[in-house]
Amino acid sequence: MGILYAGNWRWAETPRAVAWVQYTSNFAKYPYACTHSQTWPCERWPTLANGLSVTRHYGIASGVTQMPTGTGGTRDVSGDVRFMFNQFNDVAASNPFFYETTYSAADVKVFSFVDCTAVARAWGRHSDGDHYYDWGEVKLSTCSNLWGSSDATRGTLCHEIDHLMGLNHVWWDDNDGNGIDNVGSKATCIGMGSPSGPRIDDVSALDAVYSGVVP
């Protein structure tokens, strides 16, 4: 099965017979972080009633211009941040559009942090009562050695932006009797290392999250 994405046809890179499942078993087989229930409501940005996208602004902190490369130097990764937000702008009209603004005025803030336990983190605070994100942030660890490569940086940003859009980790079950295997789906940047942008499973899952329909 192919989809027309960003003007080009793209195809799944792994067999579609594979049973895609959530890493978190509470919502197994849903490649996103909701079941539209009270226990697992949708975590997403609000969109307009007519289905058109809302605008969300992201800001890039000054520390992102001096991320460690792993070879003793530093690198400005702000271009990779802009690149990946633009990739998400191409996904679907029902999803929010992201535009750059000043860091202080941003809905989503991208910044560096000193933490050696994770490469990057995404976090969004819900508005009271409706489970829509009020604001979000992406933190890039200054302890990571990945920032010397655009491929690795963009892949990491793709993964974290997917989280902010409402998706969770997707892994696969190859039906070998051992349950969920820690092998990321090559058809999604939530389960893959360095994609050039959101992939087929990301797009289908985001469509489901923002259309309000869970298959």
Can you describe what's shown?
It contains 3 helices and 12 strands; from the N terminus they run ββββββαββββαββα. With 215 residues, the protein is an alpha/beta fold. The protein has a single domain (52-211), classed as Collagenase (Catalytic Domain) (3-Layer(aba) Sandwich). The strands form 4 sheets. A 5-stranded mixed sheet has the order 7-4-8-10-9, covered by helices on one side. It has a 3-stranded antiparallel sheet with strand order 3-11-12, with no helix packed on it. A hairpin with a 2-residue loop joins strand 1 (2-5) and strand 2 (8-11). Helix 1 crosses helix 2 (150-165). Mean pLDDT is 77; it is low at 12-29.
Task: Decide which structural class fits the backbone.
Answer: alpha/beta
Biggest sheet descriptor: 5 strands, mixed
How many domain units? 1
Distance between the termini: 17 Å
H/E order of the elements?
EEEEEEHEEEEHEEH
Mean pLDDT: 77
Residues in helix, % = 10-25%
Radius of gyration of CA atoms, rounded to a whole number:
17 Å
- Which topology does CATH recognise? Collagenase (Catalytic Domain)
CATH architecture: 3-Layer(aba) Sandwich
Per CATH, the class reads Alpha Beta
Question: Which band does the percent of strand residues land in?
Answer: 25-35%
| Strand order in space, largest sheet | 7-4-8-10-9
Using DSSP, what is the number of strands?
A: 12
Low-confidence stretches: 12-29
